Amino acid sequence: MKIMIELEEALEIVLDRIQSVETECISLADAYYRVLAQDVASQIDMPPFARSPLDGYAYRATDADPRPLRLKVVSEIPAGTFSERVIDSGEAAKIFTGAPIPPGANCVVRMEDTESVSDKVTILCPVSPDSNIVHKGEEIREGDILLKQGFHLTPPAIGLFAAVGLDQVNVYRRPRVGVLSTGSELMDVGQPLNPGKIYNSNSYTLRGMLMEAGCDVQVIPIVSDQIEDTLEALEKVAEADVIITTGGASVGDYDIMRHALAEFGCEMLFWKLNLKPGTPVSVGQKGKQFFFSLSGNPAAAMVTFELLVRPVLRKLAGRSTPEEGEFPVKMASSFGKAGKQRRFLRGQAVFKDGEIWADLALAQGSGILRSMIGSHLLIDVPANHGPVEVGERLMARWIAEWES
Ligand SMILES: Nc1nc2c(c(=O)[nH]1)N[C@H]1C(S)=C(S)[C@@H](COP(=O)(O)OP(=O)(O)OC[C@H]3O[C@@H](n4cnc5c(N)ncnc54)[C@H](O)[C@@H]3O)O[C@H]1N2
Ligand code: MOO
């Protein structure tokens, strides 16, 4: 087993091994935020017919129309109707926004530029041929690829499918993720704290982060620091694609998680990432299941979830759109403790003078969950950097899911 590796190597090891989950066909209305499992082509032209973008009059324009132009109104075409009456020269159809252009007409003039009396209309400002016509297939042609496999189905994507009449979509099933918090000091909420105990927050934070990432989450009740109890708990998540544990990841006598995983039958891929917070991460694989043992420290667990687990979940979920990556920020706060290891600091983006400034959370300790509230940047301080100064430029990642 490799020990103390760089984040990029860890990602490569796991991403190389993990496959996307199976696919299923579901109704469009259930497909919000699911991941498309195949390229989807349009079965129709959009719009399906040439239409008017205005309320006004459709007529047959020439390049030499007199001004004003007097026409006889021979039909009326509200949206949702279809008129077969051919418009000859000297004639007009009263037409409404979204209605089909009648045969023979080649333009629309807006209502405000006309005057009508009984069945006559005067076009005060005649328009040139082809004015104000939305052509058939102008937005989408039959056979066009609308979205590609791996696309995350946001509301506009679902709307686009609805616009071309799609009622079923082939998507990846939701990844199933088990969450297990270990630690003999942990108690669940809803009971008074006993001496030496703390409430389990990691299961709650992770459950929400996983729900947001589109996973089906199974939270297992708290487990003690005993290998036997941990093995018993791991049996309960046989259906999960990924299991995330927190606690018992480090070097203490009670830090049993990587031993428990090995005893459970996992091939251990590595232990420890060369970064802070969250150094003592290990990852194991048993068949198709991947086990992430994260630090019990709440902020460390969240940070390593973002850096390591989320990209893996994206691949598992079938997503193919690239991650946002890092961008430069200017430091609005200093940080004295940057040392030998690469470190990710938590902070908030502040827009000032056309630049993004990173304002650090007041406390950066691995155990300080409150530092995550309001933070949505992870500022990447390289190894051996020394103190971080105000005004210095560093790279950062935007964690959209943490925005408040
Ligand atoms: N001698 C050494 N000690 C430690 C080292 C080391 O290298 N040598 N590494 C430190 C670092 S860095 C970290 S990070 C932690 C990792 O500890 P574990 O993953 O073994 O986690 P625990 O000891 O179980 O817990 C750490 C901390 O977090 C609290 N905790 C645990 N689970 C939860 C939960 N579900 N909800 C809320 N809080 C939780 C726990 O009570 C501890 O206070 O090890 C250092 N030690
Ligand atoms: O790796 Mo640990 O720095 O305390 O989270």
UniProtKB/TrEMBL annotation:
GO terms for cellular component: cytosol. It is an enzyme of class 2 (transferase). Keywords: Magnesium, Metal-binding, Molybdenum, Molybdenum cofactor biosynthesis, Transferase. Its EC number is 2.10.1.1. One of its GO terms (molecular function) is molybdopterin molybdotransferase activity. SUPFAM superfamilies: MoeA C-terminal domain-like, MoeA N-terminal region -like, Molybdenum cofactor biosynthesis proteins. It catalyses: adenylyl-molybdopterin + molybdate = Mo-molybdopterin + AMP + H(+). Residues 178-315 form the MoaB/Mog domain. Pathway: Cofactor biosynthesis; molybdopterin biosynthesis. Pfam families: MoCF_biosynth, MoeA_C, MoeA_N. One of its GO terms (biological process) is Mo-molybdopterin cofactor biosynthetic process. Gene3D superfamilies: MoaB/Mog-like domain (3.40.980.10), MoeA, C-terminal, domain IV (2.40.340.10), Molybdopterin biosynthesis moea protein, domain 2 (3.90.105.10), Molybdopterin biosynthesis moea protein, domain 3 (2.170.190.11). Its cofactor is Mg(2+). Catalyzes the insertion of molybdate into adenylated molybdopterin with the concomitant release of AMP. Belongs to the MoeA family. This is Molybdopterin molybdenumtransferase. The lineage of its organism: Bacteria, Bacillati, Bacillota, Clostridia, Eubacteriales.
